[in-house]
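Appendix B. Extra example for self-study. Work through it before the problem class; the solution is given directly after the inputs so you can check yourself.
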Amino acid sequence: MKSEKYVKELFLCNRCGYCRRLINPNTGTFGICPTYEVKGFESYTARGTINIARAIFERRLSIDKRLADHIFSKCLMCKNCQIHCPSQVDITLVTRTIRSHIFATGLLPEPLKERDAFIELKHSVFDKILQSRAETTCIMLPNKGNILYFVGCYDKYVYPYHAAATIKIFKKAFGDVAYLHDNEWCCGLPILNDGNYDLAEKIARHNVNAIKASGAKLVITSCPGCYSTLKSEYPKIVEDIPFEVKHISEIIAELIDENKISFKLKINEKVTYHDPCHLGRYEGVYEEPRKILYAIKGIEFVEMLRNKQNAFCCGGGTDLPLINPKLSLSIAKLRVNEAREAGAEAIVTSCPQCIKTLSPAAKRSQIKIFNLPTLVVNAMGIR
Amino acid sequence: MQIADVKKILVNIVGEENVSDEYFERICYSRGWSAEEPFPPLMIVKPQSKEQICEIVRIASRFRLPISVYGGNSELVGSHARWSIALDITGLKGITNLDEQSMTVTALAGTTWEELLYELHRRGWTTGPRLHSAPSATLGGSVALCSNGPNGAKYGLVGHQVIGLEVILPSGEIVKTGSAAHRCCKQFVRYAWGSDLTGLFIGSHGIFGIITEVTLNIYPLPEAEVVVGYEYESIESAVKALYEIQRRRRPIEMVRVQVPETIELSWPGVNGKSALLPLVITGTREEVEIWKRQIAQLCLKEGREITNAEIVEKAIDYWKNFSYSAPDYRKWAKEWEGCSMQIALCNAIPTLEFPKVYHAFHNLCQKEEIDKYKIKVYCGAFTSLPNGLNATGCIIYDEREISSWVKAKELARKATVLLTEMGHTPQYMGRLKSIPEVISGLGSYMELMKALKKTIDPNNILNPGQFLIPEY
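Solution. Structure tokens for the complete assembly:
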């Protein structure tokens, strides 16, 4: 709690309150903090987080169960406040540090405790029933190779057809890719966000060693959370990482450029693209998914008002649906409404967690949700 | 009455989701942008309608519960009452009437300046002043403090542009000021139906009523804008040129007197000069060209135009982003890793007085041996008034060091006393500037304020403690 960098971040905030709502001068859209937009209380803003963190640091506030629950449901770690902060406060670091303190005091909210215990035991976010679905998709893939597909918990267990679509693209472009099978553990992002640094380190070391053993020089993920964790978090934990990490949308965009894939079928849909926070704000991948959508015949693409670095989170960040499903759904509704206001009939995204979070809200609004690689496979006309 | 009972009543009025007495929530409302020490309110309530505010106020009056209104909480002087219920009015936002014929806009008090300006600009209009903290500052708060902005050279203070208000009194009654006080008349002119009651609430720090709606003048967006800069060998020469411009009422929009300490900050590349005068001229294309020439004649008497295109471009960027001034002074505290806070002492002064204020402020700082306390200062000025300047003594301190923080506040109070005694009026008071030595100079004016307060708010529920008005 008292690392120099952390203390510096607390005092870097000058309490201007620009993290409440800001205007994008081009589109006029307001609202950067999804939870503040719904709840409206100051504690949901980044300035609120800093005020709380400083009060804890200065011993004006002690951590109890209610505060712990609040800290874990107030922030999606979407980084929208951080990139708009005039003082460039690293709010992700501050939030993770408070969370690590809460974790150390044993006050982690129950659903997260259970999830983390499950990850530690089963190396995945999801339970056994879902796990039975997993291997049907990836079982045939070799465990060694130059290019490795890091599938991630969601595409492995919740959306195996997303993984299947991604593998089809790989087959068309590179032939077989490697897969870690049982050696692929959850990337550890949920653990990291809970402030459980020891377990996060254990997971990172395991995955890096497993990837090294596979001989892969390029790791491709279809989950932005895994992508950002492997690409930007692991190097902070593990020295000497001998592989490059890319997201599937970057790969597809490259394949389009190299004429290695072509789109035979028309997809007659008016779509918009929802930027996942970990792909966009965390890693700066904004153009590639759009490039892909523009390349698919028949697609009419419209932007939502809040897009790219201003994109509004879906409401699923840091597993908010586990702790506060009502709040998460309210945020998802805001995002789906934005898509509808843009005139879109479907939302395309490249994040399985965003799909899961947006789906209930989209269903009510009769808006379709597409996974980008699945859409690509359909447009390629491959089975 | 117990605090739990108060909560129950408030929940009945606004619903459970709009009331919080959680300590961590109160901590978040315990301080704004100011250097005041944190002081959590008793409870936070977020009304969603004017009717709810009326009910809350009636209850507060009945039980003598102090209320302090919160907007963007971007205030600089500590203007919230202690031991009070925080009334967060940010739920009341949006334009309620844009009357292009009368050239006025009416918006709810929780609307931020940035939100208002965006909507107006889309329709080809603008307000007069825009605040430095436009993204967070609300209309209600800026009227209650009579804030100012960088383009006051043309438009003056926020108060100068207010046509009328809608206010909820401590009795729970809703009052409209300005021409719309009469149910048949539209909000069009401020001075109507007798005394200027609008003025009673402007700058009142919320002690007489809760502002719920603000009507402002609007102006067509200027067709053209040009930024020019002049450099001078002394602050005196720069200020003399500015005075000549103001005396001839040349329609400049913004001017900032850049002193040596701020030149490198805002105008990188211009070194070794004692003062700069960057000006923004707006109007039609033809007007701008004419005024640019006329202003050049005045400025070139003792100054030199900055012709370096790169520097001028940077200056344009600087002006365009001026409302985002927060990171500006952080550049001053590089060796503190940017961990700096600022106390900005704003004093309205006649333009030609600025060199005196500048030297007096620096002399005081030297005498106070600020270097020993991790404090840095500069004294700049911008045109918050068509006939004067806002002299801003900025005290930058490191809030990680208690001694630096305490000394900065002490220095702020001493500087406020000194500058007031020199005849320069502090802008907005708050706890920071409500100093006995300053307030005592108000004599019978203060007695009248107290009498009005006692009449309008006999239970002293609205923002007690401001202007050192004692609690009854």
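Self-check: The radius of gyration of chain A is 20 Å. If your reasoning did not lead you there, revisit section 3.
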